[in-house]
Queue: 4 jobs
Job 1
Amino acid sequence: MGNNLDALTVIFTEFYYWVTIVFMFLIHVGFCMYEVGVSRRRNHLHTLMKNTMLIPLVTVTFYLFGWWLYFGIQKFPFGPIDWALGSTATPWSPLMATHLSGADPSLGVTADQAALWHRLNGVFWGAFLLFSMTAASIVSGAVIERIQSGAFWIIAIMLGSFTWMIDAAWGWSSGGWMVEKLGYHDAYASGVIHAIAGGTALGVLLVLGPRLAKFKADGTPRDIVPHNVWLVTIGLFLIYTGFWGFYAACNVPIISPAGIAGQITGDTWTATNIYLGPTTLSAITFNFLMSLSGGLMTAYVVSKGDPFWTYSGGLAGVIGASAGNDLYHPIQAMFVGAVTVWIIYKLHYWVERRFKLDDAVGAVAVHGYAGFIGLVIAGFLLWGQPSSPYAGFATISPWGNFIGAVIMFGVLGFLPGYVMSLILNAMGLLRIPRKVELEGLDFEGEETYRAALDEVRAAELAMVKA
């Protein structure tokens, strides 16, 4: 690793990302609690298993091809596929294993580079994997109580290991073509996680249709209230906590000017955002809490104290400000969070009434609309700021971020979600049968459980009589 300072930097970076992965896993604990709190009792087991099983499915597919996509297509289609950089992320690469292989001419890396990648590849992979899982879980809540598990898992793999990896390669890497040519700026993933997931959810919901009895005969929506507000509350607080780890994972913790080709002014070692622009954990701590506060206060007011929307509004506030939270002043972050929440709350109910869209947890609004709006706002507030420390990259602009928002929400989010749902629906694989929906998705499992319990009780009674 060169010298002791370099070695300590690498080891610290390795541990830093490992800790963020642990924090981010709380997001999935939160999603499980949150979705169970929203769903009705007869669907709890299905809701849990649907969301739980995306974890191994996305993990394995992400290992097999998702990680390679991130490295291989950052310039594509406006440049060549980078087979050399992608080779460090193929499933058969020694750098995707648990041993220290040293230099290998077939990898195209030196001994020092191999040592570095062996330390960092797994934790980088793990951090991005948790981002992938988060994107897939966002869709999970929107479609509860009516989607077939297999259909959701196919959509989760498509989003978590394919379409999201494309948008991350293009718009969430130091060399992505959207950053270079559009000046796209999305430091903490308003678009590259949340807009694409919300857009995918919207595409699925349009084909899937509403839950039975969601809308009255005249088209007026009924409010299907959460089964357990306590679980919703605790679940969302766990998501807030995991989101804090998510923010930290979007940074490179420490890097020297030489580490990014001398583009940083001066000699100070610094933390950077994902584009390798200087930032600090202090900055994102200010702005995370201020945008959370702006979202919570506005949601409480606009929803007239509704607990579900108050907690969801806090999350939406952070998502709306995330695109620019590396550069915003804390007061800006608060107002961006507040404005975003007011817009998405109104938009959610307008879309629900106008298009009969049944989004069970408001995921399209909280993630999709908030992410899109946050990108557009960042384009205006950060207009003219550098998108990257590298020379020749476009600066941040309203049109660059708007085009990026359309790509994230529409091209890579809505369109694949809609087309995949049409295919699954045509095959009869998308929606559960009407009878099952009325009885509950857990009905069959509950009957099996009761039968087993009756058998044990009968055996116990026979033993007592004997």
Job 2
Amino acid sequence: MIDAAWVPHHRRIEQVLRERITTMRPGDRLPSDAELVAEFGVSRMTARNAMQRLAEEGLVDRHPGRGSFVAAPLAHRRTDRLMTFSSEMARRGHVPSSRLLARAIRPSTRAEAASLELPVGEPIVEVRRVRLADNQPIALESAVLVQACGPSVLAADLEAGSLHAAIHAGGISLRRGTGTVGAASATSEDARLLHIRRGDPLLVERRVIVDDGGRRIEATESRYAADRYALDVSFDVEPAPAGPGPGPTNGETR
């Protein structure tokens, strides 16, 4: 029988290193692959994969022949990476916290069931929080989770701790997600909870996160005060389509 709380070794190493990084400074040395092997009792490949995942997320700088080091924090979060709010704020030198507004198991609405690919009315876990940095409200976060998250999420300290850490503690490994980012005007509730004015601009992020098996686990809407948060974007430029007509003349460029 498989232990429901079992977490893959590389994910366990990632989780431990993420927590350590929040207490370290950019440039601090991280354990080598050999040191991770000795500490966690895993293969060198497993240790290397865990560290490489953190490097791909921008948390770690790896230098062949020198080692792995804590990366300098970006000014903002990149759109191709989801870091927990707590880790993100800690890396920027802020003290993260949350104010819990709601936490309960209840039947899913039609929209919530669709976002998690569940039958309408299937029980889900609702978590609503105001996310703060240095006691300043940054975002209003509304998350719905599959019922399997209930025991660990209902028992966790979600004002000082991380929702994703609670989900991992329950034996569920979050793997990847998709999302959209848009704009909205602050409602009366947004204004009251974020200490802004009604109608002020918001950055609204909606995302769905799946586990290692592709099962939808979390659907979240985060409503950020636009003057307190931003996302960095990286992209490739598509080659210009070939078309008829003369090229630039007289030294002109296009």
Job 3
Amino acid sequence: MLKPYNLLENILIDIEKGIKNNVNASGLSKKYGFSEGHLRRLFSFAFKQSIAAYIRSRTLAASLNDLVETDTNIIEIADEYGFEYEQSYIRAFKREFGITPGDLRKTGKIIKIKPPLHLFAENKLGDNVFFGPDIVMVPQFHVIGTYHHMSLSDSRNVIAKQFWNNERMLIKSTVDPQVFIGITRNFDRKTGMSEYIPSLQVKNFKNIPQGFCKDTFETSLCARFRYIGQHHYSDIDSNVVGSMYSAINVINKSSYNNLVKYELLIDKVCFEKIDTKLYDGTFCQMEWYTPVCEKQ
């Protein structure tokens, strides 16, 4: 089994090479030895778009060369690029570019295409993959969990496992009992202390179990990072988290990313989110968020 970085890199290469050979999620999943459903979820998590839509966009973009530089019949181009019928190609083309293939030939209109996706050095975290930041708006949400005042040397992994394996079952009215949210607040760089709440999102604060606490993450503009690792989600330890923070610090100092206008409020609050339903025995997928404000 390929490591996450190499796997995603190979899939992107295979898509480009297979555009004229009807490349699809089914064939790619068989080649790499896991289910088509998992491939679709993994690709969507990594690149924030469906693999089917991406393949369709890249196929239509590739067909432009034949369309505008040759006199090949449109029905032949449709067949060359895997469309069963000429009208299927024309409809897909118009949805993608807002113009039919015939009208493009007549007008020479400039159109926008979807370029091929690439992985870069900054996406590599050991053998795993790290994406971001995206700037997103996170609506207000409520959680119930267990409160811990702890230092950087304390094992959050142990605390999170204890919560997940034993304590979360006591929480009622959850939004999704399979989604873990770990909130960190008020990090003190001098002492290394912070507040940590492993939790579940809830609909309301009724029936808080004894010994548990409540918290509300207010609506915030946030930086979102995404991580894919070849391990179980319960094995996200201090080494993984430390590597992520190091990568975030490097990205934060760069002048060529989505954070150029923003300051991370990581010392104030941040949270990790793990949808355990996405784990199929091979890859862990985690999202990490922190609010941002515009730089003065």
Job 4
Amino acid sequence: MVTGFVGTKLGMTQIFGANGELIPVTVVQATPCTVVQVRTRDRDGYDAVQVGYGTKREKRISKPLRAHMTKAGRSTFAGLLEFRVADASAYAVGQELKVSDVISAGDIIDVTGITKGKGFQGVVRRYGFAGQTAGHGTHESFRGPGSVGNRSFPGRIFRGKRMDGHMGSAQRTTLNLKVVQVRADDGLVLVHGALPGAPGERVVLRRAVKQKVASR
């Protein structure tokens, strides 16, 4: 069985639970995906299913990729994504997969997305540095990182030093989120809590791999 699904983050809202509690949820639009390729252990060394999702203008897709997608009956998928399965023989090219076949209410999932881009930022915002003193005649940068170098040996800045630079636009995964509702007719999934990425961005929902175990 496919262990994940592709969707689009729409934004956050809130709903009321069975006991009247207020639950903040992120709404994900998960329209049906189509199987574009089936990978088998005999031919490829592992079992997996490649699915096409979304829609993109045909002229923005390369001819080789369009030819590959055409095998599934459509050449305008926005993208392709692969999910491992235990037995690939249960799937066929052109088969349509719905989110309700993969995810149900109450499931614990991991959500992967691209975080919001913040551009070039300094160390105060990027890493939470305290900055420097702002009194007693200080005239240097108040939000600077301070000394970042070494003495004559080794005389260089080590790789990984926390400095100013590009912030955001990185792939991140939020673990162990609970699925509150799956509205199959509308193709919507309501996930408890916040998800990485801006509204309109692609997110990947997968079954949790490191579920929390209740302490005794």
